[in-house]
Amino acid sequence: MIIDIHGHYTTAPKALEAWRNRQIAGIQDPSAAPKVSDLVMTDDDIRETIESNQLAQMRLRGSDVTIFSPRASFMAHHIGDFQVSSTWAAICNELVSRVCRLFPGHFVPAAMLPQSPGVAPETCIPELIKCVDQYGAVAINLNPDPSGGHWTSPPLTDRHWYPIYERMVEYDIPAMIHVSTSCNPCFHTTGAHYINADTTAFMQLIQGDLFKDFPTLRFVIPHGGGAAPYHWGRYRGLAQELKKPKLAEHLLGNVFFDTCVYHQPGIDLLTRVVPVANILFASEMIGAVRGVDPETGHNYDDTKRYIEASTQLTAAQKQQIYEDNARRVYPRLDAALKAKGK
Amino acid sequence: MIIDIHGHYTTAPKALEAWRNRQIAGIQDPSAAPKVSDLVMTDDDIRETIESNQLAQMRLRGSDVTIFSPRASFMAHHIGDFQVSSTWAAICNELVSRVCRLFPGHFVPAAMLPQSPGVAPETCIPELIKCVDQYGAVAINLNPDPSGGHWTSPPLTDRHWYPIYERMVEYDIPAMIHVSTSCNPCFHTTGAHYINADTTAFMQLIQGDLFKDFPTLRFVIPHGGGAAPYHWGRYRGLAQELKKPKLAEHLLGNVFFDTCVYHQPGIDLLTRVVPVANILFASEMIGAVRGVDPETGHNYDDTKRYIEASTQLTAAQKQQIYEDNARRVYPRLDAALKAKGK
């Protein structure tokens, strides 16, 4: 089985974006604010967007199950206050849960949180609980920068975040560290902010000792870990200067990287540098880079081709990356699959 | 000849830091402010710090000439106002110029600028002119984020920066895009802020069309280009989505990467992905990562070993990386070397 741990509902019916635009307009002009019940999408609407997009690609490329969460760039936690984020997160999570119920063999949900800049993370707990208990979410997406590129929250190792971590540990669910749209003109959302956030999070974890407090806490750093694997020597050296244990001991029991690296040399570096046990298959399709690479004739984000073409990985190691690691890092996914006899 | 294009005076006599601390104290309490003339360092003081550090390492590792600039993390443009930055930049540039005069066969200067958050970049021009005309600076370091991790300046493609670029073109000098200390607790200075800035700058250049306005402008993105080479497929794909020309045509006549990547797999990726003509040898020793890698028994930042050990590069390509590219990208360095018969 091939499990893609990083998929977002980037192709939702246009009604979703239209509703969100009305919600945003309503922040300035409450008379323009829509009701939740104004948003109507039929099961057929949803089916169509999945069957012609993500599911079509999964069949074509040969992956079986996707961990599916609301569109990352649309989380936009910087917009409005907690109430705005809370309503929006509830809508997006419910929508993803409908996708997963419509295609139970192919999609398993992960939740976005109703984060809001300057608001205590514990306010996200009710949505988290609902998503796990009612929707069967097997993970959360945690935004280390709800300000959208101004980085006004404390580092991930700060006690600020502990209420979320306590629930993650209780439920035994991992978090993917994933920012949203940048509203800082310096940072292109998917070309700078996403990758910088991955790198930033990894370095914060090196600096801290978070996993002493939460030995079973697990983070997935997407987009191949940002710059971390390419600069692995720098990070090993910085950990050494900071008198931390070796990375393997300090972080690699708790920190995992996905394979959203959109060319063969990048994947080859990742698999050469990072232990196979810490690499999880993912594509983030249909996402930031939707085109066809003229150098290969295939989609940039068809990451399975790079894993397949790897001459460094054995068949057993590919199996770990495709399936075994995901079942270990996402135990609720494993349980859900086993409940279906998979 | 082996030219290291990325060295900072990280080992300056302690009197420099003590003076800076007094200058910083003087921002709040003008009675504590030191005079420039209070800072006294003899030629012997300077000689000692270079001979026992950078020059000793150059001899040991086998590099010949270093492009030398003030310590990057000490630029700290976010501290004080333009006058504070101006006095500090003048001191640091003069000090580096003394090093280069004391060791004319080994060090060639590059200038820091007296940038200050919210202050127009043209205010840096007099210092730039002085450094080129009087000190023989062959390049500048340009900080894309003088706020120190808050990213309050416009992107590098904005006309905001054009007065600097006009002078660079006039003098035919490149800029290394190099941030300084992060005062944002989210970003570790050398582990996150430096690498993020490299990635951010590269993406800004993809988004814009700066080199249409300045066809001969040249930037060096340090630390191996941040995350860019590891995510080369992502960047090729994003350029494609943005309807930009291919990276080779869009940027690679103007953008170069150094080899400050502190492990063999990283260097191997860089040289596999980026054309050899765009790679310049550098170590940034004695800098962010000063330790010995237990996996190799050698310093992490002894980057010449990785180039030497590369099985992908021919001898002619190594010669390009070690010397030829630097002479082409830094024509004033080439002229200075030729004037010495080198």
Question: Can you walk through the features of this model?
Answer:
The structure is a homodimer of 342-residue chains. Chain A is α/β, with parallel strands linked by helices and 342 residues long. Chain A has helices spanning 14-28, 43-61, 72-75, 82-102, 125-135, 162-171, 189-207, 210-213, 232-241, 247-250, 264-273, 304-309, 315-329, 331-339, and strands spanning 3-9, 65-70, 107-109, 111-112, 140-142, 175-177, 219-221, 255-258, 279-280, 292-293, 298-299. Chain A contains 14 helices and eleven strands. In chain A, the strands form three sheets. Chain A has a six-stranded parallel beta sheet with strand order 4-5-6-7-8-9. In chain A, strands 1-2-3 form a three-stranded parallel beta sheet. In chain A, strands 10-11 form a two-stranded antiparallel ribbon. In chain A, α11 (264-273) links the parallel β8 (255-258) and β9 (279-280). In chain A, α5 (125-135) packs parallel to α6 (162-171) and α13 crosses α14. The mean pLDDT of chain A is 98. Chains A and B meet through α7, α9 and α11 of A and α7, α9 and α11 of B.
